Every structure is written in C-alpha cells, then in structure tokens.
Amino acid sequence: MSDYFDPNNEELLNDFFMEATQQIEMLEQNILAIENNPGDKEAIDEIFRAAHTLKGSSATVQMEELAGFTHILEDLLDEIRSDKVTVTGDVVDVLLTSIDTIKSMINERQEGSVFKDDISDLKNQLVSFLGKGGAPASAVPEAEAKPAAPAVVLDDVSSAVSEYEMLEMQEAAGEGKVLQVSVYFDEANPMNSVGGIQVYARLKEKGTLLKTVPDFEKLYEDTYWPAVEYFLATDTPEDDIERQAAISDVTTKVVVKNLNSDDVTVQNEPAAKPAAPVSPAPVKSAQPASQAAVKSPVQPVKTEEAPLEKQIEDARLAQDDENQKRNIQKKKTKNATSAILRVDSKRIDNLLNLVSEAVINKASFNQISNQFVDITTELNSAENEYKERLKSLFENLPHILEKVQKGVSSTDLRDELTAQYEDLFSVFDSFDSKLKSTLGVFKNTAANLGRNTGDLHEGILRIRMVPINQIFSRFPRLVRDLCKSLDKDVDLVIEGEETELDKSVTEQLLDPLMHCIRNSLDHGIEHPDERVAAGKSETGTLLLKASNEGNMIVIEVSDDGAGINSEKIKAKAIERGVIHPGKSLTEADIYNLIFEPGFSTAQKVTNVSGRGVGLDVVKKEIEKLNGTVSVDSTMGSGTKFTIKLPLTLAIVQGLLVRVGSEIYAIPITSVIESHRIKPNDIKIIDNYEVFNVRSDVISLLRLDKLFRIDTEQNREHLFVVIVGTGEKKMGLVVDSLIGEEDVVIKPLKDKYTNSPGIAGATILGDGTVSLIIDVSQLLDLGVRRAQETRKQSALSYN
Amino acid sequence: MKTTSDFPSLNERDPEGVSSDGKAYRVLVVDDSMFVTKQINQILTSEGFEVVATAADGAEGVEKYKELYPNIDIVTMDITMPRMDGITALEKIIEFDSDAKVIMVSALGKQDLVKKSLMVGAKNYIVKPLNRSQVLERVVSVCK
After folding, report:
1. What interface predicted TM-score (ipTM) does this complex get?
2. Disruptive mutation site among A9, A189, A194, A251 for chain B (greatest number of B CBs within 10 Å)
3. Distance between CA A239 and CA A260 in Å, rounded?
4. N or C: which end of chain A has fewer CB within 10 A?
5. Cα distance between residue A787 and residue A789, in whole Å
6. Can you spell out the DSSP letters for A146-194?
7. pLDDT of A149-178, one tens digit each?
8. Class for the domain spanning A158-307
9. Any idea which fold B26-139 has?
10. pTM for this structure?
C-alpha cells in the first residue's frame, strides 16, 4: 500500500475529489453517448479511461471500496471495449447505477465516512454481463484485488531446452559466447508478471536473445513466473550481464552461466573453436547442473509463500484500523472542494501581463513625482531670482527718477532699463516648459492607469467565468431518467454550451433550470401516443440553448409540446385570487402568471414537477441573480422559457439616487424609466399613492418612508424611478437622480444588517458607502400589501 | 576539535535526485491526471529532482520532450491518456532520441501494456497506486 499518502494532505485529497467528480461527469456523458450510439468507439475509450483513472487514484487515497468497485466496472468496460459485450439498454442501466454508486461512495468519503451499503447485487449484475459476453472465465475479483495468479512451477524449465536447440543456439551465437541467465523474480512485486519481459528488454540491449524458458509468448501472458531462463549470445562480461538483469524490487536473484566455458571445462577444447559442432554428451552433462541451480532457490521461495501472505493480511488489518482513525480526522475536511475554481492558464497569463503593466505604471508615477520635486526646486530658485531682480529694480528706481530729472531722454532710459531687466521675462520659462512636459507625461500615465485598471477588472472577472456546459452537462442524464419514469420519448438538444458566465451565477442557476426542464418534460411534452394523435413526431424535442446578448446571457428552454392553455391559467389565477377577475391581460401576461406563488395547473401532483412550489421558486431564484424569467407559448406547438441573466454578480450597473443624505444604487437592469413629477401628480387610490404613466397606473413607494430617512418634505419636484419586470411595476420616490455607475457589490453578511429591500452595499468613488436596493424584494412587499388589501376588501363585501 | 568532515553523520545523505556532479536530474512528467502529476512532483522534488515540465497527454509530452531536449534526463509517462496514449508517445520519443530514459506509469492490471512499452524501449515502470519508495527506487535506478 502507499506509504506516501498522508491523510492530512488535504490538498491532494481535495484534488482527488475534484478530479473524481470530473471523471464521473465524463463517465456519465459518455455512457449516455453510447446509449444513443453503441458503436461510438471514442466514447467507450473515454469511459474506460475515466474509470481507469478513478480506480488508480482512489487506490492511492486508500478508498478501497471505491477502487474495488471501479475495478469490477473496468472489467465490464474492457469487455465492451473489445466488443465482447454489446451495449444494450440493460448494460447502460447497470453502468448508470454503478456511476450513482460511485457518486455516493465519493460523497460519503467527502463527508468523512465510508460507503457501507450492500452493493453485491450490483456487483453480481456487472459480473453477469461479463459472463454473457463469453469472456474468458475470469474469476470475480474481490474488492481488494489480490496479486495476479500464483506461480507456475518451473520444473520443466531446463528440460524444455532440447539438445538440438542447444546446438542451434551455439550455432547462432557464432563467435560470441552463450550465457544462460537464470533470473528469479519477487512475487511481492505488484506487477510480478511483468518482470520476465522487463529483464528481456534489458538483456536485449546487451546481445542477442536466443531463447527464453518459458518462451517469449508465455512471458507476455499475464502469469507470474518465479524464475525465467534467458539464453543470450553476447560479448559482454558475465558480471555486467548479471548487473543488467538485476532490477531492484523486481528480481531476487540472478545467476549467469557461460555455457561455452562449461563446454570448455568438460570437453577440454580450446575456446577459440566454439563454432565447431558440439557433441550432445557434454551439453547434456551441463544440463543437470543448471537444473539444480534453478531448482534449489525456488524451494525456499515457495516455503516462504504462506507466511508472506499472512503478513500481507496482517498488514491489511492494521491498515483498516488506521483507516478508521483517519476517517475521524477527515471529517473536518468536509466539503472543502466547492471553493476550487479551474481557470484557463491563458487568463492568468493575461492578468500577469496586466499586473506587470500596472507595475510599470507605478514606476512612471514615481518618476513623475521625482520630476515634480525637481520642478518645485526650480520654481523656488526662479522665484528667488525674480524677487532679487525686482528688489534691485526697486532700489534702482531713485536713480532712474534722478536720471529723469536730469533730463535723460525716455528712449535712452528705456534702452537702459531693457538692457538691465530684460531677463525678468524669461525667469520662469524653463520652469514653465518643464512643468508642461511633465504634466503631459502625467496625463498619459493617468490615462494608461485608467485603461490598465479597466483591463485588469475585466481580466479578473474573466477568471470567474466558466462555460455553462458545467451545468448543461448534467441534463442529458436528468432528461433520460425523467423520460423513463414519465414514459415519454424526448431528444435533448443542447446549444451554446460554451457560453460563459460567472461561476457563482452558474452554481445558482442549476436548480431553476432543472425546474424549467422538469416542467417542460412533465407538462409540456405529451406522451408519444398523444403526440402521434396531434400529428407530431413520436419523439419530443427539448432545446436547451445559451447565448450572449450584450452583457446579458440568455438561456432558453423550449419544447415542442402542447403549449400553455391560457384560458385555464386565467381561470385558475382568478380562482386562487392571484388576479382580479376584471383585470384585462395580454396573452404574455397570462403566461407569466404561472410564476406566481401557489400556482400549478397540473391535474395531478407528480413527483417530477412537485406540489405547485415550482415556478415561483424559479422566478425568485433568477431574480436573486438579478435576472428575469419569462415564458412564451403557442397552443399545440410548444412552450419556451427565457431566462436572462447578467454576466456577473460581482458588478452591476447601478442608477445612483439620493434620498435625504443617503445615496442608494438601483440595479439598472430592473429600472424601466424615470420621471420628474410635481407632488400634486400623485393621486390616492385605496389609500395608496399612485401615479399615471401614459395609460398605466403605477403604485408608488417612498424610499424615505421605507428606510425612515428624514428628508425635505416641501419640494417642488420629486423623482420617480419605475422599476420592475414584465407585468409587475412600481415607482420608487426619491429626492434626486445622480447618475449611472458600475458598482461592485459587497455582500452584507452581518445578520444585524439583514434588512429587507437591501441587496448589498457598495463603495462609491469618494469612499462613501451606498446601499444597493433589492428590487424584487420591494416588489414582493408591494404585491403582498396589494393582495392583503384585496382580501380585506373582499371580506368587507361579504 | 570537531569537524563534520572527520565524523560524517550517518543521517546525512545526499538527496537521490542529484547526480554525482551536483546537478538535479530534470524530469518531465506526462500524465492526464493532475492528481498523479502532483503526487509524482511532490515525491520527486522532495528528493531534489527538478520537475522541469508536465504534460497532460502523450502528444503534449512528445512536444515538450522535443522542445526541452537535451535538457531533460527522465520522463515519467502515464499509459492511458487522451489524444495520444503513453506507448505511442514513448515510441515517438524513442524515435527522436534513442537514449531517452522513459519510465512508464501504469495502473495495476495493465501488464500487457507495460510489457509492450518495455519492449519498445521504456527503461522501467511504476505501478499505481504510487508508493513513494517505489517511485524513488525505480526513478533512481534509471538515473544511475
């Protein structure tokens, strides 16, 4: 077992979990691929490789249950790969169940416990496929795969070399000598069946291998040979050959024997004539000797076998104990994997590049600051000089006046003055030009800094961007399973899976998207017979599509099913009190009613689309991500859910507004328009302040009242920001609009600051904190109030 | 007077990954599993080897080898990898540099592939799950 793996090496363990999750995903995708196309060789190879890697790494981190199970799985995959088992629906089912088992094993491990469910049924199932395929009767490997088949006895090694062969070898060796190299292998080596070939490959470099016992083909089979004889024609000294054949960890003993020299000693013939035919007799006499040499060392090895096995067993028991201890320790590492983000190294390189630019920028600023210091000194000296000159001018004034009195002509006087004080004009010239040039550099550098910060900002955001495939890839399996349980036939088409969006958005998108897909499968797409009756193809199509639209990402889930019955929806909505019976609605408005809480038109509650807690949750989740969701449908030909999301959650464009002395940011995605109104434009209906926008009536919410901020009451104008999505709108009354700006959202984690209507905070350019308004919460607040009033008024009618 | 040279400490030994002339052996790790790559990296660097490059598949491995040659002493090569498997990569590397020292990394049960690669010219092999002492022993044996 691995003595390197340290249970406290959390980094490696995390890597393992992360990689295992990827492998499982790959397995699942490709299994689905071969279900559709059993001949997909590439997918089969992928599956095999993923299972194989999983097995290897789980063994390293000592997750025996996982390693054992994947080993069995790998056996089946191997058979599939070599076309011995054909891919049928049953095989795919078993494979998928196995994947689920592996998933739960990994989950258990991640939580610090060990998977203990009985999976022998599944194992038997896996093995039964092996048998069916007419595979060689390979024994069912136990969870703890034991070293390969035990040794084959080597008694017949020497007898396998006939006299004739011996002669032939001598012949082939020509001038060189023939060495008989007997190598004994260590059975404890995990790949003890490889040794024979390894030594073969090494000896091959030193000469010509004439023969091996057992022969080369047998060495290539997956059997362990305790000892192998190599007959080598070479010029290399025996010592070297011995060293070459000995491999630490693999061989236990090497005996090199020069067959020629044997002959020499027995035959007493000069070594210079080895080419001469060798009489059979001497060779034979050499034979028993080598046989003895082979036999004797084998014996002790064999007697040691049993205790050795016991030792291994003991070691394993000890290890199990240790594992249990480890599991306790592991509990603390629970769920640490979710924080890992895989990033294309190019993006990091790009960032590094930008950072180095920023460093250069900093250097430029340093330089500029030095220049400014120089310029200030220069200014001082110029100033001093100027003052001195002025002083001398003032001192000169009496003389000049004297000269005027003496009647010196003004022209002469001017010439004299000019000659003396002309330089006064140019005292500041050098300072001026230097200041100008430095200012130029300063402006340039500041512009660079701006550009650089922008790039850096974008680069950092790009780091968080992941392809949406990370969640799309889970749907083929989901759709397949759902179709089976609903007895429907659906093709899932995925488009634009390479579209990227923020990682945190991706993670939170999974559930809502799953809900939409379930809804389409359950309510949208009809049963095959209904489809045929409606003149459609038996197989329904579900399209999952992602695309970019400006700085928004658009995800569409569309099916070619029955569509939404708008009359049914409307009736239901009225029945549930979601809308007023008299309200006139467009088709689109009606469809979007299905996102209202407590709405489900499914005749029967199934475990697929739930108990009517479905689509309103989707809407809430999406709105939490600052996105919108809408639905469009055509009776008889299908339904389309459209989800629009901002690319990132970390930064939003905000409309800054002022209420009293506070500044709030409203995400621009939910701002529809803004108006400047006079206080008397506000009307009162049902105790609500409302306001007319064209033909619509918008109810107003005063932020100053909501957040209890003192503000000047008697103003000439008010500003109303109309926010909302689709059919739900509301006007927020604020003191003034400031403008649009990118704001970085900082979450408010403190539970004391968890106040409704606030999504987070941001820091403005001047350092003040501004709160970001959560529009969907405010809308909910408004709707709740409206519904309560409606209920109350309904009561009062009765 | 006490000097270290007079009484060499038994506990002091040279790191295995440094050749007799004091230079670290340079290793290229080719493995599609980041986990294994990291493990090999940790084991080898702890003994003074220098992992100069890593590659995630055979094709990348061959490319990196050619790029770094001759500044590379040892290659560890996974067998099952996407794009180009380890044996093909091994063949390509041997074709490029017949003296290349390549050590195969294989999971248990892939004996036939290990044998094949040994015949192609791999110098040794390591069996997964990796074991520190085994990795070091086999890598060092190839260095010497």
Report:
1. 0.72
2. A194
3. 16
4. C
5. 5
6. PPSSPPPP-TTTGGGS-HHHHHHHHHHHTTSEEEEEEEEE-TTSTTTTT
7. 343 444 444 445 666 666 666 666 666 677
8. alpha beta
9. Rossmann fold (3.40.50)
10. 0.48
